[in-house]
Amino acid sequence: MEKVKSEWFDWIKALLIAFGLFFIIRTFFFAPIVVDGPSMMPTLHNGDQMIVNKFVYQIQEPDRFDIVVFHASDRKDFIKRIIGLPGEHVAVENDQLYINGEQVKESFLRERKEKMPSYQTLTGDFQLENLPGGHETIPENHVLVLGDNRNNSTDSRILGVVSMDQIVGKTSLIYWPLDRIQIIHD
Question: In the chain, how many domains are there?
Answer without folding.
Answer: 1
